[in-house]
Write a structure and sequence with these properties.
alpha+beta; six-stranded antiparallel beta sheet
Length: about 280
């Protein structure tokens, strides 16, 4: 399930770094720890967007000028989402960068109809591989139109599906997996001198790494179960650190929301709810 957490912004004009996913990951971890439940503190199947609002860019980063700021959070576990929201609303205000945010309300996104061919847009960068110490491989650029790009995402997705609880027979049925980028978009970005792939900071076990993240529209050809998994749990590695969040292209997000109530029924990826640390 996916929810939108809406905050009021106390200090308009305040900023976060342009690449601020690592700050959100640190904030999310602090919120989870404040609730005191070890099961959810270490639960890996969640991901989130960057902060959304009216912004201006400066050398300091993104300055927010809207009265409200939104963060999208997704997880297959309704219990996890409830825990996160309860823990968040125990705090009158939270700080992200120089922004002081007060949690106001939560909206639930209705789960869209997903088939075995879906066009997605990236609302947070996709990271292809995990970094390692003294190895810059995770910063290497890989052309999204190559098989290597799709293969790396397939491998990480299958690994996460296996850890989530799918059996070997189910995993074998997920052999269809192909990422097809929107070539017109890539050409437009290249011709304009802009970038769809950038280097992002990331902290793991308090160690700072740098990874390459990609943001562009693409069509994913894969089974319905895989499509739903990446929509709910993210695509690529380090989803629980704010990477790999997708949305359906050409959809109207306003029509997909309703008021979120803690304890309401959940749509899960499988018949049984799997909550594993």
């Amino acid at each position: 399930m996916r929810v939108r957490i809406i905050f009021s912004l106390k200090n308009k004009g305040a900023s976060v770094p342009f690449h601020h996913q690592y700050l959100l990951a640190q904030t999310a971890k602090a919120i989870l720890m404040s609730g005191g439940d070890e099961e959810f503190i270490n639960y890996p199947y969640y991901h989130f967007s960057g902060l959304k609002g009216q912004t201006r860019i400066s050398k300091q980063g993104l300055h927010f000028y809207s009265s409200k700021v939104t963060l999208v959070l997704a997880s297959p576990s309704k219990e996890y989402v409830d825990y996160f929201i309860k823990s968040l609303f125990n705090h009158t205000e939270i700080q992200v960068g120089s922004l002081w945010l007060r949690p106001l309300e939560v909206e639930r996104e209705e789960f869209p109809e997903i088939r075995d061919e879906t066009k997605f847009i990236c609302i947070s960068p996709i990271v292809l591989m995990a970094p390692s110490l003294f190895d810059a491989g995770a910063k290497r650029f890989i052309d999204p139109e190559t098989d290597e790009f799709s293969d790396l995402l397939y491998e990480s997705t299958i690994s996460r599906l296996e850890a989530y609880g799918y059996n070997s027979e189910e995993l074998a049925s997920f052999f269809k997996f192909q990422i097809v980028p929107d070539r017109a978009y890539l050409d437009k970005i290249r011709n304009s001198g802009k970038k769809f792939a950038r280097i992002y900071p990331l902290y793991d076990q308090d160690v700072k790494y740098e990874v390459r993240g990609y943001t562009f529209p693409f069509t994913l050809y894969a089974s319905k179960e895989v499509q739903e998994f990446v929509f709910t749990c993210g695509l690529g590695v380090y989803a629980n650190k704010g990477f790999g969040m997708l949305d359906i292209a050409n959809s109207d997000p306003v029509k997909r929301t309703s008021k979120y109530e803690i304890g309401e029924p959940s749509i899960t990826l499988k018949e049984e709810e799997l909550v594993r640390v």
